[in-house]
Write a structure and sequence with these properties.
The complex is a heterodimer of chains A (673) and B (158). Helices cover 45% and strands 22% of the residues of chain A. Chain A is an alpha+beta fold. In chain A, strand 16 and strand 17 form a beta hairpin. Chain B is mainly β and 158 residues long. In chain B, the strands form 2 sheets. In chain B, strands 8-1-2-11-10-9 form a 6-stranded mixed sheet, with no helix packed on it. The chains are: A alpha+beta (673), B mainly beta (158).
């Protein structure tokens, strides 16, 4: 990067650069996966090839701007290889795709090394290999030649358009200035004006020395540009593409001292400037915004309490309610800003599986479902390693060797499905394989040999607990996870820290499903405030279907478990007083919150309902506080913590004695009984 | 006199204990502890401190001493140990004291009971002896939850 940038600007530009590279690399990986599925089939690959080309081109351009030459060069040869495909689809083979996969990984390594200030990995081998592939093909001889050394000018797709014999093509160069900006003339305004009279073929920012920038538009103006001097007054120079006056390579303006600027004048440094309204924001700034909103929510609830207590002037109540509404909208807006598609993690997995498959003889088809599911950015970051581990696990432990699969009358190619979907205010992520499944007895035996505690009763939940205990591993797991610092224990910890649940469903011989259920947003939620003894607790409102009051005499015991008649069936109930080890109260009327979970509805018996509140969720991060049924704490403004009860954990058997689990489950038969 | 570290001195069951002031974040009056079900017996519950939910450990219970109703002198000593923040409920706490390293002697086993496992030494000061507390040992998870709550006990059948 040009040394003329100030350190702050450099830092900010670099952050943008890294962020954009992340996005582009994600897009390239997705593109490669899609392309891979179509190789050898009679399906059109043109659109994928074109998108890949564009992404590589952009990486090349932005790498040049920051002066990251190895990434630029590698992206350049990748581009050449992709271009060769578009003219000769027969060249599109698995081997070439592999090469591109490796090259994509290398670009990522180079960028990571740049970010962390480490040495840049070498690219010579890859440039050589891609060059060999290209020179082996007669038709792409010329492209191969360009791979050796980045030429001072290389044709790009946009330039080739501008050179086409089209008399209506013009080049408009806009030099922004503070004076123009004050008159409301900025690059977007110019773009709009050009769009109004013609068609923008390409738009390219040209970075000059001292951090100044020009924008070069190639436009098709069927009726000509009109009054040139009027454009000029607004800082826009219009010229014919071939004209000597074309300011596209403003050599005279380039700072001779800056080598970057010289290259920047070249179109290889072009940063494709699609009309975009996107601003990148550091997650920490959004966290700050969310924290402040959380404080406002607490202040407002205090205000509301005070108004309710004092029966204040009539207008105040209305203002408080309006304020509450605005705050709610504000936090929803912030939450939306934080959402990103889970594809950020998912798109990596095909490569993980491909790498694993290469090292073994297993054949696996990985399917991604719902990659567009949006989750909080923080969640995505935290889930990266756990999901990686679960996929590796499925491959290493779940999937059998081809021989075993054939013997079991299964297709040789195994399947791993990684899916995401949002359910209410939760996101559900599943890793499903059709492998050998989890053998409870084998896991228990292994655990015993490792000196771990094994419960007498083996079910999916207790086996999951063994799998997630820090000391548990199988021989394979040691090899695979070595040096990665990840294991099922870490997966379980992360899920718990995020306030989620982890579940295993498996059948020996037919596969296993690991289900992660996580809250979509982490910090603020609606809750029902209930009293249990002298304490208040919060129960997330999303889990609550309805609040009912019944006569205490309606409670019956079925196999020692209390149930009540409910909607023509029986509803199992859980007394929260018991959870808090409080003596049973015997009111005439019992208040309960009907909560629905995957396993059906359950009634939570409370002493009283105090109202509905927006609460700020604080995690219980200390290991001493990791108890089932409690997902966090909050406060209502008086500085006293209030526990947040997790109805799913309470009603899902996590807290239930295993023997009673079956009885409590409101199965269809029981309801109709 | 050579090196002298600063310690926070607190009282528990008429004995004086010292924790290195490096690990003490702050000391608060005890207002309200919200009980958390199914935690280890020594965990009385949680308190809020500066936006965080902190476990409050009753040091009397931890040491197998008799519980005591909280008084105006009861204090919460907030400690940061190995990235964790916890609060110890102690009978009283009010002073900082420099204790020279040579004033600290290893403990004599006969002197102490359960708490012996959590004391690294005894410092003899002018008028009294002070037990130097091994904070990390006090907070060791396995030890705190020596009596794990059986799953069945979490929701006793009604």
């Amino acid at each position: 990067m040009s040394s003329s940038f100030s350190p702050e600007l450099r830092g900010e530009l670099l952050d943008d650069f890294y962020a954009e590279c992340d996005e582009l690399l994600t897009a390239i990986r997705q593109g490669l996966t899609q392309l891979e599925e179509r190789v050898g089939k009679r399906e059109s690959t043109a659109s994928f090839v074109e998108a890949l080309f564009r992404h590589c081109h952009t990486i090349k351009g932005i790498s040049a701007i920051v002066g990251l030459r190895p990434a630029e060069q590698l992206a350049h040869v990748m581009e050449d290889l992709i271009r060769a495909w578009s003219s000769h689809p027969t060249l599109l083979t698995d081997d070439h795709l592999d090469l591109l996969v490796v090259a994509t990984q290398r670009v990522e390594q180079i960028i990571t090394a740049h970010r962390t200030g480490q040495g840049t990995p070498s690219i010579d081998d890859l440039v050589q290999r891609i060059g060999d592939v290209l020179s082996a093909s007669h038709s792409t001889r010329q492209a191969a030649a360009t791979t050796r050394e980045l030429p001072p000018t290389s044709p790009t797709s946009t330039d080739s358009i501008s050179h086409a014999a089209d008399p209506s093509l013009y080049v408009a160069t806009f030099s922004p200035s503070p004076a123009l900006d004050q008159r409301g003339i900025n690059v977007s305004a110019v773009r709009e004006r050009l769009k109004a009279i013609g068609e923008i073929v390409s738009a390219t920012p040209v970075v000059l020395g001292k951090g100044s920038i020009k924008f070069r538009f190639v436009v098709r103006l069927p009726d000509g540009p009109g009054d040139l001097s009027a454009w000029e007054a607004d800082g826009v120079l219009l010229a014919l593409p071939e004209s000597a006056a074309t300011p596209s390579l403003p050599a005279a303006e380039v700072e001779p001292s800056s080598s970057t600027a010289t290259r920047d004048g070249d179109s290889t440094a072009a940063l494709s400037l699609t009309p975009s309204q996107i601003v990148r924001v550091d997650l920490a700034r959004l966290d700050e915004l969310m924290r402040i909103t959380g404080e406002m929510v607490i202040h407002r609830s205090r205000l509301e309490d005070r108004i309710n207590q004092n029966g204040a002037a009539s207008g105040l109540k209305e203002i408080s309610v309006a304020l509450g509404r605005s705050l709610r909208q504000m936090r929803e807006a912030i939450s939306r800003v934080r959402m990103v598609p889970i594809a950020e993690i998912f798109s990596r997995m095909p490569f993980v599986v491909r790498d694993l498959a290469r090292e073994s003889d297993k054949k696996v088809n990985l399917t991604l479902e719902g990659p567009q599911t949006e989750v909080d950015k923080y969640l995505v970051e935290r889930l990266r390693e756990p999901l990686l581990h679960l996929v590796r696990n499925a491959f290493a432990h779940g999937i059998e060797s081809p021989g075993e699969r054939v013997a079991a009358h299964k297709p040789v190619e195994a399947s791993i499905v990684l899916s995401a979907r949002s359910e209410g205010s939760s996101v559900v992520i599943q890793i499903r394989d059709d492998g050998r499944g989890v053998d409870f007895v084998a896991v228990a035996a292994r655990a015993t040999s490792l000196g771990l505690e094994v419960p007498g009763h083996l079910d999916a939940a207790s086996v999951m607990k063994i799998l997630c205990s820090p000391g548990f591993s199988t021989r394979d797991a040691v090899d695979l996870a070595a040096g990665r610092g990840v294991g099922m224990a870490v997966v379980a910890n992360t899920v718990r820290e995020l306030g989620g649940t982890l579940k295993l469903d498996t059948q020996v011989g037919s596969g296993a499903v690991f289900t992660l259920r996580l809250p979509l947003t982490l910090s603020i939620a609606d809750a029902i405030i209930v009293s249990i003894g002298s304490e208040l607790c919060a129960i997330p409102q999303v889990a609550v279907n309805e609040i009912i009051q019944i006569d205490a005499r309606e409670i019956r015991l079925i196999q020692q478990s209390p149930v009540i008649p409910y909607r023509g069936g029986l509803l199992p109930i859980v007394k929260l007083r018991a959870m808090f080890k409080l003596p049973e109260a015997s009111p005439e009327r019992v208040t309960l919150l009907v909560c629905s979970t995957e396993r059906g509805a359950t009634g939570l018996v409370v002493d009283g309902v105090r109202g509905q509140r927006e609460i700020v969720i604080r995690p219980l991060s200390d290991p001493l506080l990791h108890v089932p049924g409690i997902s966090g704490a909050t406060e209502l403004g008086d500085g006293r913590p209030l526990l947040i009860i997790d109805p799913i954990a309470i009603t899902q058997g996590v807290v239930r004695p295993p023997t009673a689990e079956h009885d409590l489950r409101p199965s269809a038969e029981k309801r109709s009984a | 006199m050579s090196l002298a570290d600063t310690y926070v001195i607190f009282e528990l069951d008429r004995a004086a204990y010292a924790v290195s002031s490096d690990s003490v974040l702050h000391i608060d009056m005890l207002d309200h502890v919200t009980p958390v079900p199914n935690t280890a017996p020594a965990v009385d519950g949680v308190v809020f401190s500066r936006g965080q939910v902190i476990p409050a450990i009753n040091l009397r219970t931890r040491f197998g001493l008799e519980r005591q109703t909280h008084t105006a002198r009861t204090r919460l000593v907030f400690l940061k140990v190995q990235q964790r923040i916890v609060a110890l409920i102690v009978d009283a706490a009010r002073e900082f004291q420099r204790i020279p390293a040579e004033a600290i002697r290893p403990i004599q086993e006969t002197l102490v009971g359960i708490q012996g496992n959590y004391v690294t030494g005894v410092a003899s000061l002018k008028d009294r002896s002070v037990l130097i507390l091994d904070v990390a040992a006090v907070l060791t998870l396995d030890e705190i939850s020596t009596a794990p709550v059986p799953r069945e006990a979490i929701l006793p059948p009604t």
